[in-house]
Amino acid sequence: MAAFVDRVVLHVSGGHGGHGVASVKREKFKPLGGPDGGNGGDGGDVTLVVDSQTTTLLSFHHAPHRHGGNGGPGMGDFRNGANGESLTLSVPDGTVVKDAEGNILADLVGHGASFVAAEGGMGGLGNAALASAKRKAPGFALLGIPGEERDIVLELKSVADVALVGFPSAGKSSLIASISAARPKIADYPFTTLVPNLGVVQAGQTRYTVADVPGLIPGASEGKGLGLEFLRHVERCAALVHVLDCGSLETDRDPLSDFEAIEAELAAYAVEPTFAQGGQGVIPLNERPRLIALNKTDLPDGQDMADMVRATLEARGLRVFEVSAVSHRGLDPLKFAMADLVRQARERLPEPEEIAEPDVIRPRAVRSRKGRKGEFEIRREERNLEPLFRVRGVKPERWVAQTDFTVDEAVGYLADRLNRLGVEDELFKQGAKPGDAVVIGSDDNGVVFDWEPTMAAGAELLGGPRGADLRMEERDRPTREDKRRDYEERKAARAATQAELESERRTGVWAVDQEINRLAGISDEESDGAGTAGEAEEVTGREDSHG
């Protein structure tokens, strides 16, 4: 089982906001006491926090899905839903947060540094919060917004001042064990070290950290060996120390060729820009201060090899130290030389400015102007040879997510909000016509509707049952003159019908029918349901035969 993991893909999602509730207060002697629906609770966030006691991303490797708590729904009697529980995830110092496309979102350096990976959704408002002087009893409530969902990549880059680089079995682990309290695994075979090792070194008044980076071989920057996995642990280091093996038994290797091979890999590696480099800019690895440690000089052949290559390396302007990690020979000069490089790097960093607390001036709140720049944008598109207008913006998309489209009054409230924001005016400016398709949001979660500009604002002024918006019905409201004209027409039609019936009675039409029914032995009730013209003719024929 892996004990060290320095790169994971994490699937995070904030908690969903709770829905608001539409409720009416009911008490004895107060059957309709007004709206009392509570608001829904907010969803919990997912936050990454640097913890000095955490050294690996192993826990996220086994459980990559993390979720914030959902907010509770609102209830009647002005009871708001509970907020969802936020989730705090501990990460090691030096964790870089990236999105799925590889863009850096945060560089977490220092104990307590935090980053909100996924925000929780906003809770919906209940009808009590939506009530106003004009809308006294709203019959709807706003829905809670789903929490943010995304995939992020966590990469651990060791926070060290000096990095030890070199071929496998060059003695890097032995060297870091000799100059610090670190106790890495040491053996006489290549790739003994499989994870970076960190050690704290004290040289005089300077304390710094040293990292042992494993797996560097020719082609490491392209993925060979373990170099591509662990070269990123060198990025934060201010200085490099080449540990060259002077006692290698391989005939095709020597310290000079090893140095040139590692330098080529460092030059080929692209250092990523991060937010924690103090404004220094991105410095390539091969341009950083370097020292040379000729290791294993306690061996007879090792000392001879060191004498052969020392002059060549010094001619290139490099400081060379002959050391032995086993016998601790020459370690103190190397430690103090590394401390000098670290001290110089720290002096180049800009000093943090003392920020005095300014006087806070709180201006009076100003109502947002209609169509204020940046609140939304409308883009004209074409779909199936028909115009389509796409509305994008934080407010319009949030309002759509909060709307319950099964309630007409809620849809009318959304139309009022969009109109006040200036969406309808902007659609007019871009040439939108009634019946054109309008999309609010993206193709994944957008809402498509046919634009009808006749839906003016003022849903709270329209009469009708609670929870209904008369503007959603395709009919015109009759005026007082229309009602009077309709009444007169119905009155005239009723008088004409009565006159026609009176005329038929006077001509004897009804009397003939009653006489026929009497001779046939049919009652008036039976003649209404079963009497037909054929039966009347048959009865008349029998009467004539008896004549």
From TrEMBL:
Chain spans, region Disordered: 63-84, 463-547
Domain Obg: 2-159
Lipid metabolism keyword on record: no
Names of required cofactors: Mg(2+)
Ranges of residues in domain OBG-type G: 160-343
Domain OCT: 368-453
Record keywords: Cytoplasm, GTP-binding, Hydrolase, Magnesium, Metal-binding, Nucleotide-binding
Tagged with keyword Nucleotide-binding: yes
Compartments reported by the entry: Cytoplasm
InterPro entries noted in UniProt: G_OBG, GTP-bd, GTP-bd_Obg/CgtA, GTP-bd_prot_GTP1/OBG_C_sf, GTP1-OBG_CS, GTP1_OBG_dom, GTP1_OBG_dom_sf, OBG_GTPase
Gene3D superfamilies, alphabetized: GTP-binding protein OBG, C-terminal domain (3.30.300.350), GTP1/OBG domain (2.70.210.12), P-loop containing nucleotide triphosphate hydrolases (3.40.50.300)
Record-listed GTP binding positions: 166-173, 191-195, 212-215, 295-298, 324-326
EC number: 3.6.5.-
Chain positions recorded as Mg(2+) binding sites: 173, 193
SUPFAM superfamilies registered for this protein in UniProt: Obg GTP-binding protein C-terminal domain, Obg GTP-binding protein N-terminal domain, P-loop containing nucleoside triphosphate hydrolases
Superkingdom to which the source organism belongs: Bacteria
Bias type Basic and acidic residues, positions: 468-492
Subunit structure, as described in the record: Monomer.
Similarity field: Belongs to the TRAFAC class OBG-HflX-like GTPase superfamily. OBG GTPase family.
Function: An essential GTPase which binds GTP, GDP and possibly (p)ppGpp with moderate affinity, with high nucleotide exchange rates and a fairly low GTP hydrolysis rate. Plays a role in control of the cell cycle, stress response, ribosome biogenesis and in those bacteria that undergo differentiation, in morphogenesis control.
Cited NCBIfam families: Obg_CgtA (TIGR02729), Obg_CgtA_exten (TIGR03595), PRK12296.1 (NF008954), PRK12297.1 (NF008955), PRK12299.1 (NF008956)
Protein name, entry field: GTPase Obg
Organism: Citricoccus alkalitolerans
Annotated gene: obgE
